[in-house]
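Hello,

Our lab assistant flagged a job as stuck in the queue for most of the afternoon. It eventually completed. Since we weren't sure the result was trustworthy after the delay, we are filing this so someone can double-check. Below is the sequence as submitted and the structure that was eventually returned. Let us know if re-running is recommended.
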Amino acid sequence: MKLTLRVWRQKNADAEGAMSTYEVDGISQDMSFLEMLDTLNEELIEGGDDPVAFDHDCREGICGACSLVINGDAHGPERTTTCQLHMRSFKDGDTIDIEPWRASAFPVIKDLVVDRSAFDRIIQAGGYITAPTGTAPEAHSTPVPKPDADSAFEHAECIGCGACVAACPNGAAMLFTSAKINHLNVLPQGAPERETRVLDMVAQMDDEGFGGCTLTGECATACPKGIPLFSITSMNKEWLRANRKVSR
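-- returned structure --
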């Protein structure tokens, strides 16, 4: 395959960025999208140019490090992570636009790499449980109803990639935050911090400068792990419940 790539290049956070055009040839349809970018970078390095900076780690769809907007879609045309997107999703001769996540809370560091530490601070605000140290308890000493366990597992699948923010027209982080809150709040182990968790994490989310949610649903459509939209409404109910309890 021969492709034309229009890639966002930005030297650092303070520099002006712009799209640069590159031609790549000999691309196999069995390559992943990141392997295609590796091929581009090899050619750039051989030509004495700076390679394109982009985030990646496990390349197995688990870590959430890869973060690209491809032809206007977070992670590209398939509902998967960028590293699991393969070039068979494109055609020979295609022009592909490649950009970083676009959100004020995710400032560009270089080229396609953005700073997503805002997510870390949201988790630090309340994404933990109080657990006694010492001998590990018996596996079944705390019964968990099957529906609650299933819900916790469903929300725990969030890998924090940020596609929900990139896809949201408002740059909101409600789907990510709700997944992290609901994951723990439905379990008995998360009960001690149930109220403070939702209040603190939502407050931190707002402090980070993410946009407001209008429930357009783009976040759930782009999520590679299928976190459902009702996760947000569940979090809103938790927040109202906690806010009323604190106000009494």
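-- support follow-up --
The delay was a queue issue, not a problem with the job. The result is valid. The beta strands are 3-9, 18-24, 69-70, 73-74, 95-99, 108-110, 113-114. DSSP finds eight helices and seven strands in the chain.
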